[in-house]
Design goal:
2 copies of one chain form a homodimer. Chain A contains 9 helices and 15 strands. Chain A is of the alpha/beta class. Chain A has 2 domains: 152 residues, Medium-chain alcohol dehydrogenases, catalytic domain (Quinone Oxidoreductase, Chain A, domain 1, Alpha-Beta Complex); 171 residues, NAD(P)-binding Rossmann-like Domain (Rossmann fold, 3-Layer(aba) Sandwich), CATH 3.40.50.720. The radius of gyration of chain A is 21 Å and the shape is globular. At the A-B interface, helix 7 and strand 13 of A face helix 7 and strand 13 of B.
Amino acid sequence: MEKARRFVLASRPVGEPKEADLRLEDFAVPEPRAGEVLLRTLYLSLDPYMRGRMSAAKSYAAPVAIGAVMEGGTVSEVVVSNHAAFAQGDIVLGRTGWQTHAVSDGASLRKVDPTLAPISTAVGVLGMPGMTAYAGLLDVGKPKAGETLVVAAASGAVGSVVGQIAKIKGLRAVGIAGGADKCRYVKDVLGFDECLDHRAPDLPARLAAACPDGIDIYFENVAGAVLDAVLPLLNSFARIPICGTIAHYNDTAPPPGPDKLPAVWRMILTKRLRVQGLLVTDFAALHGDFLRDMGQWVREGRVKYREDIVDGFEKAPRALIGLLRGENFGKLLVRVAERSE
Amino acid sequence: MEKARRFVLASRPVGEPKEADLRLEDFAVPEPRAGEVLLRTLYLSLDPYMRGRMSAAKSYAAPVAIGAVMEGGTVSEVVVSNHAAFAQGDIVLGRTGWQTHAVSDGASLRKVDPTLAPISTAVGVLGMPGMTAYAGLLDVGKPKAGETLVVAAASGAVGSVVGQIAKIKGLRAVGIAGGADKCRYVKDVLGFDECLDHRAPDLPARLAAACPDGIDIYFENVAGAVLDAVLPLLNSFARIPICGTIAHYNDTAPPPGPDKLPAVWRMILTKRLRVQGLLVTDFAALHGDFLRDMGQWVREGRVKYREDIVDGFEKAPRALIGLLRGENFGKLLVRVAERSE
């Protein structure tokens, strides 16, 4: 008989998560009741927000409880259906978490058409990360042709899409990424105008050279040293959509001084910046537009994507630790199981 | 023969300005040429932004040069007119600076109708500070009835108007001011729901008690300890229009750590805050609406104002130092001369 496995939160990380903060458990494959489906996880999406869910700190979403299954977006296959809207073999997008099997009443599932695009893209370029880039850049960033955009983690799931949409909209796109390989990919394959290696010395001077007309949109997903380099280059009326601050997710205390907040607050005033946070879940009204536009851009090859697929469910904790270190190259996924024929 | 006097910037202040940073000079009353008018200053407006103009640091406007006349908004009387659009005795609003007399080609002057309101209000509730409050609250803050607004310097030229407009728009208005007299005035005369003395202990707890439903708009004009107290109380989707950070204008270096910026940046994300700087000069398109609405509100007594008038031009430097310390009570003005009959 098939066994199910899941990762539960064993302890709240202090600083960088350890593999032991997540505990692998076996459990019996659950039985779907009337109106429910049994799902087998094919892909588990790994994303930076997960670090926040491991902490007890107050945030926009409740933390995962100790002993509870880690949260996560998944692409799954319907194994058994007692639900009129789903058939065995259907592929669905859900938030069933870090487990090989789950039962669902279908309310939070969305069917994925495997003939339109690889099913893994439902948690990538055509899913939450792609939508974050789309809504954050277009709705919050309000890009105008001829402007300059800067985005870090430029080879990653969100940053790669931000820069490519910026190019479609006629902006200059400058990426920042970790290492020469990623930078080459961002420039040569994704078509950014420039990509700078944040590991090389003197990022501020290189960024200034790459942005001769200043910066009009800084799509913030990292903060830290990249933000420091960006701030002096911001033009008046620049926009900073904030979708993440991954450089600080493993901080155990506020960084040492001096306190940069007063100078940044004053710069927001003198340059009339707009700094605005965004969560993808706030943009449900744009989802139809997103699927139409992004689907077309991907089909036309105007938006390219790269997946970093880790094979084997048991490797998920190590992969998440690597994600927070910037070790992945492209959208990070765990392949939990093969689709059945 | 009448002598003219002016204050020029003698030296750039380090920290709090000293009176000696401004030097009083005599000069010959200038002669207007064809197309020009000679103005006699009646009121000089003193405003916090002036501290920025005394520094060499890059900002939205060029600093005042050493030896040049200090900048400032003025209400003046036309003494001699060689300009078709102005007659002797006209009252005009201008930016002729810290001097008793000035010559102008009229391009940057606006006539003030002395029958509509006291002429001093042209640099107060019906002028730049009133317009800053109006545009910042309505256009940037986007207030909605039932929300809670917090503003500091609540008895001052901008804060007093922000809170009164908030009340007109159906918000709960909570002010912060320095000392019991100002707080009583803000609550009893201006009609704020609450006003808290920032000099009394435990502002964070008192602010939390005054904002039982959290804070939806924090109109930022001070930063510092008030911002620290506001941040934990902000609701999701709160707005922070930034028009000033007076608590830091005399800073000589960034404050010691820890660095609060990463935590604030993350809060902007998790609460989906919108933080946006504003300069009144960006809102020329709203000026007609402002004059119509504010004129009506003042006539109807729905917006009250209080002026803190210092008599004597020579007292301007000391008054500016006091403004930066929060010693004024109401819109600070220097009465430079009486209107002639």
